[in-house]
């Protein structure tokens, strides 16, 4: 078996990689504005690392439904100092749809590119990742956040997402992206309604069947705020970490390679419990 490109953290003994979210944005749905100043984002990233994050995912563009895009200059201004500082203490991925931002972040120390558009938003992304030989997370995506929820229409969401994501993987490999560094992500909450997210979570085996490591990013998403709330207001994002931990345990049992989370402490706890339950009697 070939080895993964340098930069792809390895899931050890079936224990998934924990990717801690560092959003350097004023408007993310989950933690908008909390870490917008570079020094706050760096402090937060260091904290997540100390709590057990295997990789820190630094992003400068909010992808919440309806979000407007920042300019390229603004995105660079947000992420580069944070990537540079955090690369000294942790593996870092850059969460971007722009090849120019990915290139600058790789130069600043990032070792992994996480693109929610799977290379669709920018035709220069796949060639860049191929040329640099770095690992790439390709998420299922149907269009920019401004109007993505209008694209949440599926005949069979699991089959449709797997077909579209599988097609993306083929195109990326044809463009020269390293097969052993390609991670796929079904894109929870992106052009998906609550029942779509639940169906995908229930059928992660189908996504794993595409033959690549799978990243799961359910953390604090709206469908977790809606569950069990019939007739009441949805739970706000900061109160969705328990629900997220349950999905973390589920995804780990299903065989996910990695989990993208805001609350690293809860994710590590959930993984410890999952692992203990898998252990043999007498442990
Ligand atoms: N979700 C968000 C941002 N980036 N990347 C991947 N690979 N998968 C996701 O599900 C994902 C992502 C949106 O969440 P945030 O605004 O809290 O970061």
Detailed description of the structure:
It is a single chain. By secondary structure, the chain is an alpha/beta fold. 39% of the residues lie in helices and 12% in strands. The protein contains ten helices and eight strands. The protein has helices at 38-50, 72-86, 99-107, 125-132, 157-174, 194-202, 204-208, 222-226, 241-254, 264-278, and strands at residues 17-23, 55-59, 92-95, 112-115, 136-139, 182-185, 215-216, 258-261. The chain has an eight-stranded parallel β-sheet. Strand 4 (112-115), helix 4 and strand 5 (136-139) form a beta-alpha-beta unit. It is globular and about 45 Å long. The mean pLDDT is 93. The protein binds pterin-6-yl-methyl-monophosphate.
Write a short abstract of this structure.
The protein has 283 residues and is an alpha/beta fold.
What is the beta-strand fraction?
5-15%
Number of helices: 10
Spatial arrangement of strands, main beta sheet:
6-5-4-3-2-1-8-7
The helix fraction, in percent, is: 25-40%
Mean pLDDT: 93
Number of strands: 8
Pattern of helices and strands: EHEHEHEHEHEHHEHHEH
Descriptive terms for the model:
single chain, 283 residues, alpha/beta, eight-stranded parallel beta sheet, binds pterin-6-yl-methyl-monophosphate
